[in-house]
Amino acid sequence: MLIGILQTGHAPDALQAEMGDYPQMFTRLLDGYGFDFRAWAVVDMDFPASVHDADGWLLTGSRHGAYEDHPFIPPLEDFIRRAYGAHVPMVGICFGHQIIAQALGGRVEKFAGGWSVGPTEYDFGGETLRLNAWHQDQVVERPAAAALAAASDFCANAALIYDDRIYTVQAHPEFRPEFIDGLMRLRGRGVVPDALMAAARDRLDAPLDDRELARRIAEFFKRPRAVRAAPAKA
User: Fold this and answer.
1) From 94, 97, 135, 155, the catalytic residue
2) Residues 6+ apart with CB under 8 A from 125
3) Which of 161, 177, 200, 233 is deepest in the core (most CB within 10 A)?
């Protein structure tokens, strides 16, 4: 199964040599599930020709806001709507979670309650998963087609499911603790409150449930569907 990674942002240059960019992080996260991967840097206006160029799509995080004026956002929203209409499965992470919700009628805002950083606990239907977070923006109104899949005290719409077509999560299962630490050093200063970053550093060694979320993502992509997407091109 070919998973197309729609890259909506870039990791800081200073961290890429050791940790890779976002496509490499997701390739590592989903290693062992039998997927092949191809990445398109949509943030740089590199788009697939068709929603059927992959068997499923994964939308990454980004430092951009879904509501901001960037050239790649309108065509990405159009791509999301076309993939949804064609029943090609999609997974969205952080910005991917937000832009999918926005494209399908939800609303995203810079959250007045501030930032969520580092290991954070989410309620996935009665099961608690601890995952790394790095965001201020949130989905504040979910689309009519979306059902709630997870929430936290800080983030009401922490994961959404759109029947068997889309699964999205606000947290970052692909971010390792050292990457969160690097983001705090390189992008957090003067943006994220110092006290919040200090508290996040104190719990960076907490065990994470990223492998469990990876399993759920892989299971979502592989589940049998009544309407199948066209096969990816060779």
Assistant:
1) 94
2) 149, 150
3) 200
